[in-house]
Amino acid sequence: xxxTALQPPAPGETNIAWQRVQLARHPKRPHSLDxxxxxxxxxxxxxxxxxxxxxxxxxxxxxxFEGRPIMIAAQQKGRDTxxxxxxxxxxxxxxxxxxxxxxxxxxxxxxxxxxxxxDTPGAYPGIDAxxxxxxxxxxxxxxxxxxxxxxxxxxxxxxxxxGGALALGVGNRVYMLENAIYSVISPESCAAIIYRDxxxxxxxxxxxxxxxxxxxxxxxxxxxxxxxxxxxxxDWDAAAAMVRETLRxxxxxxxxxxxxxxxxxxxxxxxxxxxxxxx
Length: 279
What we know:
The protein is α/β, with parallel strands linked by helices.
């Protein structure tokens, strides 16, 4: 990180970024299954990676969106203590990423569009996950998603934490809800490394440029989905309606493209990221 990133942000900038971090983590914010319930019909969940087991931190399945078949891979957090433990606080393990890839490859085989919903603080860093190949599972997803021959639409609905989110984030269209965050590291961890004090997470949040507005200005996402009122947690139905409109538009734009055009468009999109030079 450059020296300028270590300097205190401009007045007001810190509060805005940190407020969005708090909204992205709001305990009453709608999770993936809340959107699935409101956006899709005939949702049938698919379990297991055919190698180890099932991972409840990622929910996958097939459904219909306004009469159109679609495949879904979504990261899911828990609401109460029991659900948080069951969903592993939204932190997927390797079998979760392999399950998602299995579903996405099935969608490509039958020409169905794919929707992924990002909402995780990061991939699970436990010893058991590492023993089963956490890094390999994430890397495989990045490679295989880049060459899927179906439309891939990605929406970050809450937290987009590092490679744990990016493993489901390679899409033709990438959107973020207005108060979602997407970053290579959490503000707390960044502050502990850069400032040697995790209590300076508020300053780190601004330095990381993790808000939807920051990422849109940098050309890393394709659009920002507005939220109702004070945030998505204030009106789940209105938030879902705004996601519906964005998803409908993206499907209308991507469905006419050939498999070759979809792959090429996705490849060129991610190759442009981080390139700030012009000839």
